[in-house]
Structure formats: C-alpha cells, structure tokens
Amino acid sequence: CVGGVENDCNTHAHLWNYIQYGLEQPVNYWIGGNDAMIEGDWKWVNGRTIEMGVPFWYPEEPDGGTSANHLLISSNGLFADGDGEIPFHFICQVINM
Question: CATH no. for residue 19?
C-alpha cells in the first residue's frame, strides 16, 4: 500500500467524510504524498502535484523542513507534514482493474 491519492476539493471532501463517518475514530492518517525528492515540491504517489494552502492545509503548513517529508490528514481534515517514522494509521486508494 502506498497511500491515497486525491486531486481536488471533491475528493478531499469525500476522504474527510470517510474519516469522520466511516472509521471508528478520527485520528491522523498518512495519505500518500511527500516532498522527499525535492524539498517543498509536494507530490502524490502518482506524481501529481499536491495543492498547497487553503482549503487543504493547516495554516503555516508544511513546516517540518527536511525532517518532515510525508503527508498526513489530521483528525480535523487538514493536511500537515510529518516524519514518516510516526506510527499513524494510513488510508489507501484501491484502483479497480
């Protein structure tokens, strides 16, 4: 599993709805984005650029510099960067073949 991929506000809303109502408890989740290749250039696992700023990210995020290269969605639905060693749950997108 390499994480979730979202492209727009509709997908973000769907993911947030799933976290709020489809899971036992809303907590932080890894969702498959990173800036590991180029600091500050956030990409989904499929190579698409991650939208920055409102309405997706916490204010002042991403803020972890080179030590926080992985994307999480917080328990309130906003993105933040984090150290990939933190043992959060993860959400994966299943693609039908």
Answer: 3.10.100.10
